[in-house]
Specification:
284 residues; LysR family transcriptional regulator; D-Maltodextrin-Binding Protein, domain 2; 3-stranded antiparallel β-sheet; LTTR; Arc Repressor Mutant, subunit A; 10 helices; 3 domains; 5-stranded mixed β-sheet; LysR_subst-bd
Length: 284
């Protein structure tokens, strides 16, 4: 039976998650050459090729895909054993944008707690701009937000696509301003919707402004107004109505993660959370 080296398995899992030797090396605080050596050591130990690497892509081999689940369990067991020897609990503060957080978030946080019982995560939810400002002030250790400007740093977790959603019974009379429900003026999705309508010269009026996201969803579900939503977070029972009412397409954006975490265990926990976010966000 092959004896596994923790650092080699960690290198493999990180390469698999980030699909890049360069980014994996950066995440683990080492060099690309060292990552490659650790992966080769693991592959030689197992007698299997785990990663298929070409000039344009890095992907799991069939054996690598089969080994990945067990590799994660191996690392989790190792981390739990080490955490059991440490005094006190580690903690970090995480901001998740309200328009990013979907119904899968509680499940992901529960998975993260099982992965690393020695870690306490303090979660703050707000709009993306508020969270990014808090991160820049050092009030958050990490933030997962929707990209709202030209800032290019941060790790991309996936694309976010938007549409116009309304209840099936929503009625928009020709010639009348479009009835729009939105969050507070600082909300980025509201800004995206307003710019699209103004550019298309479509008159609109806000009939429900400043409530919580659940209140906006309730207003749209009740047929009182229309609103722009992420296509994966539209209220149940609503439908996409762009073609029905001749509304302009809404630009896609990206979900990005920012982090200043330095200790290896916290970075690994955050990578596990990021992987979970990617799993729930199809590329198209």
């Amino acid at each position: 039976m092959a004896t596994l080296d923790v650092e080699a398995v960690q290198a493999f899992v990180t390469i698999a998650d980030l699909q890049s030797f360069t980014r994996a090396a950066e995440a683990l605080g080492t060099t690309q050459g060292a990552i490659s050596v650790k992966l080769k050591r693991l592959e030689d130990r197992l007698g299997q090729r785990l990663i298929e690497r070409t000039p344009r892509s890095v992907r799991l081999s069939a054996s690598g895909a089969q080994f990945l689940v067990g590799a994660r369990e191996f690392l989790a067991a190792h981390d739990r054993a080490v955490a059991g020897l440490s005094e006190g609990r580690r903690r970090f503060s995480l901001g998740i944008a309200a328009h990013v957080a979907g119904p899968e978030v509680p499940t992901l946080l529960a998975r993260l707690n099982a992965h690393d019982p020695g870690l306490t995560i303090e979660v703050q939810m707000d709009n993306s701009r508020v969270l990014l400002d808090a991160f820049d002030r050092g009030e958050l250790d990490a933030a997962i937000i929707r990209r709202e400007d030209d800032r290019r740093d941060g790790e991309v977790l996936g694309a976010e696509h938007f549409g116009w959603f309304a209840a099936p019974q929503f009625d928009h009379r020709q010639g009348e301003p479009l009835r729009l429900a939105a969050l507070a003026p600082a909300c980025g999705v509201r800004d995206i919707a307003a710019r699209a309508l103004d550019t298309a010269s479509i008159p609109w009026v806000e009939v429900f402004l400043g409530g919580t996201s659940s209140m906006v969803s309730a207003a749209v579900s009740a047929g009182l107004a229309i609103s722009a939503f992420s296509c994966r977070l539209a209220p149940p029972g609503t439908i996409e109505v762009s073609q029905r009412f001749g509304l302009p397409p809404l630009p896609s954006t990206e979900i990005v993660m920012f982090s200043t975490l330095t200790d290896a265990s916290s970075r690994e926990a955050l990578r596990a959370l990021a992987t979970g976010f990617r799993e729930h966000r199809p590329s198209s």
